[in-house]
Amino acid sequence: MNHIPVLIPMVLLLASMFAVFGKRSQENYLPFLVALAGMGLSAVLSIIGMVHSVTEGPIHYHLGGWQPPMGIELILDPLSAFFCLMITLVAAVVLLHGEERVRIEVGDRIPAYYSSALMLVGGLTGIVLTGDLFNLYVFLEISSLASYALLATGRKPAAVSAFRYLILGTIGASLYLLGIGFLFMEVGSLNMTELAVMIPEVPVTAGIAAAAVLMVVGIGLKMALFPLHGWLPDAYTFASSPATTLVAPIGTKVAAYVLIRIFLFLFAIDFMKEGIQLTTIVGWMGAAGVVWGSVMAITQRDMKRMLAYSSVAQVGYIALGIGLANPLGLIGAVLHAFAHCFMKACLFMVQTNFLHRLGHYDIFRLDHRTRVAMPWTCAALAVASLSMIGLPPTIGFFSKWYLLLGCIEEGAWVFLAVLLLSTLLNAVYFFRVLEKVYLRSDGEAYDDHDEEADQATSSREVSAAMLYPTLVLAGSLLVLGFANAWIVTHFLQPMFPVW
Amino acid sequence: MSDLLEYVQDRYAYWAIVLLMIIGLYGMLFKNNLHKKVVGMIIFQNSMILLFVTAAFKWDATVPVRDPEIDVQVVENYLNPLPHTLMLTAIVVGVAIVGVAFALLIKIYDNYGTIEEDELLNKLESPSPEDDGDCDTNDTQRSSSPKGGSA
Amino acid sequence: MSAYETYFSTVPFWAMIVSAVAVPLILAFGRKPNLREAVTLIAAVIKFVLVLTLLPDALAGRAGEWVLFEIAEGIDFSLRADPFGVFFALIASGLWILTSCYSIGYMRGHAEKKQTRYFASFALSLSATIGIAFSANLLTFIVFYELLTLATYPLVVHSESKKAIAAGRQYLAYALSAGLLMVAGMAWVYMATGTLEFTPGGILEEGMVSASGMKFLFVLFLIGVGVKSGIMPLHSWLPNAMVAPTPVSALLHAVAVVKSGAFGVVRVVGFVFGPEVMATYGLNIILAVASGTTIILASLIALQQTNLKRRLAYSTVGHLSYIALGASLLTAEGFIGGMMHISTHATMKITLFFCAGAIFVHTHKSDIRELDGIGRAMPWTLGAFTIGSLGLVGLPPVNGFISKWFLVSGGIEAQMWPLVVVLLLSGLLNAAYFFPIVHRAFFREGEKRADGRSVWEGVGEASPWMVVPLTLTGAMSVFFCFFPDLPLRFFTIATRVTQDIMGGGLPL
Questions:
Q1: Where do the structural domains in chain B lie, given as residue ranges?
Q2: Cβ contact A–B (≥3 pairs, < 8 Å)
Q3: Which residue in the set A160, A170, A357 is minimally distant from B97, CB to CB?
């Protein structure tokens, strides 16, 4: 029981080592099964850990038995357990969904693909669980390495965009490392719990402020916070669809979670807010990202690129919540990270399904026949779009609701206006797709037998292995929407005491 | 004037590191050749490592390995071991990243026959975005669906 | 400020969900039209009966409530059948039965495509409407409010013509923006008061928000509910949405959707802001100016329309503002008049739309200038049309007279003379745009065909599926004038709700 915090990432990283061996062949199913088993086991461990941490309090695990100031500490509290569960579950569902596409798009590099996928998820769970700043850097780089490799699969330009991501990502990680260095020089510890106690006690120096700024910029690069988002659209667009589906939902969200932890648990939030006003800056960056990402998404005709720009906007929401720096805003930010993880995974799956069946994902070429051929995929698209727009009762509405409450409490009217405006912009680019799929776009008159004939000859829905994961995620958006109060009271509020 | 000189002198190691950092950053961002970008990246990462090692350095102290001759209770006698161990890990991480970067470079060279950024950009822009957007090199049988082509 | 005595009851939930449950069945029976329509009708009847069972308790001031779960931190998702909710639910669910019959006649007579989608969306819209009626707090309200927008979107774009798609876009743009502003307003109210429960007499109190903030907040809400209730300048989606099939215009754009906007206005005025706050901050003046202007302008625009449905649409825009105007008077009689107008306008306008639809399906005429002499061919239809017109003008013996009477006397009581003038002037304008239609239909000769016979010769009434409902609604309009309190006790409920909002006894 007490080993759960270390087991979750370890299972994944070990599985990653096993998955890499094996024949380089399209018919090699072993890596896939290993990956699925690894994710499944970690998910189960996360659930056990979650239950345990809720009922009996957080588990503090000291690696190798070394006590915190010397050794590395892993902390499994309700929030981190919940994040782990989210990461592993979504990743498992995505893997299940992508299996067919991986064989087509990745070809005979299957062992390497699944090994990287496991490494990515292992690294991300490590980031969530660790209580040590340097250990966080290591896990951050492990997951980044894996995502560079994953995003390089796919079409020809993918290698170039992945390389660009690698350069920028490395700059981000190095700046973060530099920040840790400053902090270590000023305060003398790397354990987050300890630092949280020590930082308020030492006099605020330029070093601490610089450390905060460097860490925020470094993580901002990783989470694609506007204007540090330059790598994201290309990287997501050119990568193979299953890889994008895996990296896009969880990668940037975990970086955002790190940012929240830095703001909230490491530095005193008052220091960030009043002392160096970093929260305000991050909030404005987020707001700008929300508008920029949404506007850019509207101008795209490539559905994948549209979703990529929408990711920039969604990361902006999270940053905006952090910028509010009050409990409601932070709850909204974390909840939006959850929400967006599920929504974006679902949408990228829909895009993959389109590619699989129609051979393209060009928005202008979608029409009502798409829906006739793939009714369930289109239904999933509709639900996920509504959640992205933020209509009740999906989870997307409630995360925005908490953000709105946070804005009003803070009197941040500009942020409030940005939230409202961006919802409309989201509506524009998602209804644009929905309208094409659900209505006859050319407006021509009906031919009586047309529809019947279409339905009879071409029910071309994707296979069950691709369809059910998509539907499960779409359904989860509604379930999460109804369960949001439960999530907030059990997992978020203990972290951000509000009322 | 002498104050400034002293200030610089006292911290000359740090100034060297800052210089390295700037060189690295310049290489990463402004060099046209992707290979040189990787070199810049290595310099940048190593400057970070040097920073940690420098920060842990003390005059007249010995390496952090216990020596019965030297009193372990006196902090001044030993270097701080933590940054050194951390940097061992950081070096490993850096090597891994360089490895991935070179792998990507090989793939880019295979795909485009060049690793000069301006030439690459030209080649990336030349095929029209739509053609690029909806076909899939490994997926020719599937993408030739009757639905896709007719709209 | 008497809150209702609540008791646990799942009936509001079942009443809300029954038509949503019908949706999968309707979809499943898509290939068997008779079975599909039977499902619709059965759901409609069950829904009405369920709502009806809530009536006695509502009259006694008891409200059945079911708190389903906590939908957001500190806010429950709960349905409560308070008197005002029951009032609105009765109207919507009762008229759904008739509209369903009418839809069957219309859709088959017109051989419309995608009837399954049509009936499914219709059922879902009704669930949303009843949900709006029974929402116990603003957050539940907004959930159903947005659901209603989405459920009615397929109905607006039903014909899938370019015009319909453009109208659908406009509808979504208006309704979604409005919903958003309302969400923002809600969040603000929540931060100020810590609750979102609808409470008779309002949840906001003086000093909770600064004076300018209060005005801004009210405008947010006014836009939020004003789009659906067509308050100018937020009305323009409504005439364009008339591209939808006529039963949709009849039930949704005369009753369910637009009335949920009007219902929202009364909820906001009476149950969120409360008369006192409205009066203190002069918010009722904002509402009165907006609604008064809308009444006059909409009537003037209606005069210029030659398309029958568009004229009816502008008439709807005007009449919806009667309700808002009644609320803005902040007097007991004003509230009663406004609420009564929800019910009276519903029966009258649905009659008119039914008639327009019957004429269109049967003769394919939608232009008013083509209707010369049609009264002799379709006497029942046009007879019902005449009744509806009389009522909207405000003449006895149609129920429109009752609501207008209360509105005018409320205006006099509040000493708001401009509004009294507006009401009377609008009566004249109503007469000016309705009576010419009646005149053409009954007193002018129809065009002659080449062989000298009238174009109407041989044209009888439309199918009984359509004529019976429209005759019934016409008859109801007359019946409710003489017996406004029978059999559904509309008047008693309206009085009761007003009492709760105003607090204290009624000067009646």
A1: 2-61+71-119
A2: yes
A3: A170
Interface test with A, best of C183, C186, C210, C223 (most A CBs within 10 A): C183
Q: Report whether pLDDT(B148) > 50.
A: no
Query: Which structural domain range is residue A437 located in?
Result: 279-442+459-499
| pLDDT confidence tier of residue A444, bands split at 50, 70 and 90 | very low
**Dist CA A308 CA A25 (whole Å):** 31
Please give the pLDDT value at position A139.
92
- Ordered strands of the C5-8 beta sheet: C5-8, C62-72, C75-81
Report the chain A residue with the minimal C-alpha distance to residue B29.
Answer: A167
| pLDDT tens, position by position, C264-289 | 888 888 888 888 888 888 888 888 88
Alpha-helix residue ranges (DSSP H) falling in C157-282: 162-193, 211-226, 237-240, 246-251, 257-266, 274-280
What's the half-sphere exposure (Cβ side, CA atoms, 13 Å) at A302?
19
d(CA B82, CA A215): 20
Answer whether B136 sits within 8 Å of A134, measured CB to CB. no
Distances (CA, A) of C316 to A77, B68, C128: 58, 97, 21
Structural tokens at position C86: 């029951």
Taken in order C227, C230, C231, C235, the sign of the CA dihedral is positive
Which residues of chain B lie closer than 8 angstroms to A233, CB-CB? Answer: none
How, if at all, do strands C75-81 and C62-72 pair? antiparallel
The per-residue pLDDT of chain C, averaged, comes to 82
**Is B56 touching A (CB cutoff 8 A)?**
no
Would you call B132 and A157 a contact, using CB atoms and an 8 Å cutoff? yes
Q: What is the pTM of this model?
A: 0.86
Residue A429 lies in a domain: yes
Listed range (A2-16, A326-340, A416-430, B6-20) with the worst mean pLDDT? B6-20
Query: Distance (Å, rounded) from C-alpha A130 to C-alpha A75?
Result: 6
Angle between helices A413-438 and A303-324 (to 10 degrees): 160
Paired residues of B62 in beta bridges = B78
Rounded-to-integer distance, Cα C5 and Cα A309, Å: 51
Burial of A116 (C-beta count, 10 Å sphere; 0-12/13-18/19+): buried
CA distance to partner chain A, nearest, from residue B2 (Å): 24
The total number of structural domains in chain A stands at: 1
Size of interface A-B (CB pairs under 8 A): 130
DSSP A224: T
What is the nearest CA distance from C184 to chain A, expressed in angstroms?
7
| pLDDT at position C115 | 77
User: Which CATH number among 1.10.287.3510, 3.40.50.620, 1.10.230.10, 3.40.190.10 corresponds to the domain B2-61+71-119?
Assistant: 1.10.287.3510
Q: Taking CB atoms and an 8 Å cutoff, what residues of chain A touch B55?
A: 181, 184-185
The pLDDT tens digits of the residues spanning A339-386 come to 999 999 999 999 988 888 887 788 877 777 777 778 888 889 989 998
Give chain A positions within 8 Å (CB) of C69.
Answer: 482, 485
Q: Which residues pair with C6 in a beta bridge?
A: C63
> Which member of A408, A440, A482 has the closest CB to residue C188?
A408
Query: Which string of DSSP letters, residue by residue, matches C113-173?
Result: S-HHHHHHHHHHHHHHHHHHHHBSBHHHHHHHHHHHHHHHHHHHTTT--HHHHHHHHHHHH
The verdict on a CB contact (< 8 Å) between A423 and C190 is no
